[in-house]
Amino acid sequence: MTVAGRAPRTATTGRAGPQIALLAGGLLLLAAIAVLSMGVGARHVPPAEVVRALFDHQGTDDQVIVRDIRAPRALLAIAVGAALAVAGALIQTLARNPLAEPGILGVTAGAGFAVTVGSALGTAGGQADELGFAIAGSVLAALLVAAVGQRSPLRLVLTGVALTAVLGGVAMGLRLMLPDVFDVYRFWSVGSLAGREQAPLALPLTAIAVSLLGALLLSRALNALTLGESVAQTLGAGVGRVRAAALVLITVLSGAATAVAGPILFVGLIVPHLVRRPAAGSVPWLILYTMVLGPILLLVADIGSRVLLPTGEVPVAIVTAFLGGPMLIWAVRRYGAGSL
Amino acid sequence: MSIRRTFGLVGAVSLALVLTGCGSSSDDGPAASGKEKTRVFAADNGKITIPADPKRVVATGYAVPVMIEADAPLVGISSWKRGEPMMTEEDLATYKKLPKVAGEQAAETNYEAVAEADPDLIVIGVPAPVLGDIDIKRLESIAPVVAIGPTVPSAWRELSHEQADAAGALEEFDAAKNTYGTKAAELAKKYKDVLPRLKLGHVGAYGDAAKGTFQREFNGSWGTNIAEDLGAKYYGKVKKPGPGSQSVSEYPSIEELPAAFREADVMTYSVNADGSVPKSVQYVLDSKLWKNLPAVKAGKAFPFRYTEAATYGEALKTLDAIDTSLAPLLNR
Question: Which of A326-330, B165-169, B326-330 shows the lowest per-residue confidence on average (mean pLDDT)?
Fold first, then answer.
């Protein structure tokens, strides 16, 4: 039986109690890991000092580290983790393809291409410029893919893959011809949450917050879409409108996340699979769970990125790749290929 | 002559032999009986028989500015954009005029252009690990190849000497070296009551400073080694030393900034040749942790220009820049 086929049965079986308990447990775990992430790093900060930094700031070095570096970083991890995970859940639902992830819409390639072009033109010098180019690139790429592939999920995926290949190839050519551009790109291309505390993050974080709310509001309509277009239309869902709205949300979520943190590929693919079982075919629950597990996964990976090396840090995208691979294998072995 | 003076003389002669020979030996090779005298020169790629008095030299990488300054008989060079801001007008004109036989990267060597230049010696100034990007055998089919690449940043003094020696251009080199030595000694005297008593820390801009990290440079690194000639002392050492520049610099997290520089009396940091602040350094300067450092609070944070100097001519500019930056220390 398909995931879509289980949806109506779940909705009527009244299993909300355990699901709410699981969600509450996830939120508590998320809060605990967020607090932990503010105490762990290159410099150990005692829990009492973490609390003082947040509520009784005196401006000591430890408090500055917590308040000006780790707290914004934890907030960024929560936002980016939720954005990527929810974008992954939306694209997998929309494309009805368990291997779909946000990058499949060409968003990551578009952002990378724009950062490369910006560097080549010498206009992507600061963090704000880089952020602007990444956002513009991801939005333009997603618009192009949506315009060509809106009518069919398969066409959407194929267009995204094709555009990714084209943009990747052109950007690679530019980077090979211009070594300075390659230097800029190689740091951007490995997603990281470090050093973003000075970047102007208000706009992308607001866009992510609004889009997450939008995803929750849209999730009921998407629930109907999982039953198939004909059934959805019979149930009164505007298939075209729902699909367009979902595409906008995926674009904003993955575009903003990629722009602020660089490409972090595994979160959008793996998190929806890990929560699909407890969501029991309900898209609203799937969205809620991914919204909690995505940040947990990224926060844990980010803590790991700070402590794995004796000096310096490992970019978080590398840690998520190491965590994500075994987790995907575990999910397949635990729940079987059907869960995917 | 006293025993002490005799030992001094022997020591000076030995040092001169080490510096001028540095593994090379004046030795008439098989070709000597024919047309041209040769000698055996010890380089990164082995002991190479080269012309004793080369007439047509191709230079790449770090060897480019050295050869131009030393008035070596160049017939082709690689592109060396990073050194342009540190060249004198005359050297820059020479650099621009010379045929380019390679790009900025070792892999961009144009073998046909090298052959067309018809050199009798090729001097490659790239780090040993990068030599793999070059088809040495193909170059050797054109002319003898000596590879003399950078190791630790402060070794530019010895490496530039070897490069100039290989090209038979020590006369101009020694003149530049003496000028540098005189100027450095003057400045060391000027700062002798200030610098040796201070603990310094340096934030660099060289290499792979990823986001959220900074480059800390210790004694012997790019940003510090010339200031050391004035008596500056950069305290501390690398936590986990690696080869080359990794033995004198590291890239810790920005969170480690207070622990790294809390004891520093004076902070210095690398800036571009035009005085603008590189992105990786600006990130540090904008951090509250930087503003909390005792040296910064005391107004003792100074920018250094021309920190990538790798020749005596370039280093003269660095000396002037350091003198300008550190001058306020003399007024305190």
Answer: A326-330
What ipTM does the predicted assembly reach? 0.77
Name the nearest CA neighbour of B213 among B132, B293, B144, B281.
B281
* pLDDT of A262: 87
Closest CA to A105 of A241, A253, A205, A213: A253
Tokens of A185: 């790109």
B105 touches chain A (CB under 8 A): yes
Please write the tens of the pLDDT for every residue from A88-105: 999 888 877 777 788 778
Which pLDDT tens digit goes with each residue over B235-266? Answer: 999 988 888 888 999 999 999 999 999 999 99
Q: Where are the domains of chain A?
A: 79-339
Is residue B275 left, alpha or beta, with left meaning phi > 0 and alpha meaning psi from -120 to 50? Answer: left
Measured distance CA(B177)–CA(A306) in Å, rounded: 45
Q: What is the pLDDT, as a whole number, of residue A174? A: 82
- Touching check for B279 and chain A: CB below 8 Å? yes
Exposure string over B82-95, b if 16+ CB within 10 A, otherwise e: ebeebbeeebeebb
Q: Class for domain B24-168, per CATH?
A: alpha beta
> Taking the model in full, what pTM does it have?
0.80
Nearest to B259 among A43, A69, A315 (CB): A43
Contact residues, chain A, for B253 at CB < 8 Å: 41-43, 194, 306, 312-313
Give the range among A5-9, A270-274, B194-198, B292-296 with minimum mean pLDDT.
A5-9
The DSSP output letter for B133 is G
Domains of chain B: which residue ranges?
24-168, 187-330
CATH number of A79-339: 1.10.3470.10
Q: Is the pLDDT of residue B33 over 50?
A: no
- Assess whether pLDDT exceeds 90 at residue B321: yes
Q: Is A68 on the interface with B (CB under 8 A)?
A: yes
- Nearest CB neighbour to B251, from listed A125, A192, A312: A312
What is the least distance, in Å, from the CA of A183 to any CA of chain B? 9
Tens digits of residue pLDDT in A298-334: 999 999 998 888 777 888 988 988 887 787 777 777 6
Would you say domain B187-330 falls under CATH 3.40.50.1980? yes
Nearest residue to A210 via CA among A86, A127, A50, A114? A86
Q: Which residue has the tokens 């430890």?
A: A62
Residue (of B92, B57, B81) closest to B163 by Cα position: B57
Using DSSP, state whether A262 is helix, strand or coil.
coil
- pLDDT band at residue B220 using 50, 70 and 90 as cut-offs: very high
Is there a contact between B243 and B232 (Cβ–Cβ < 8 Å)?
A: no
Q: Share the mean pLDDT of chain A.
A: 84
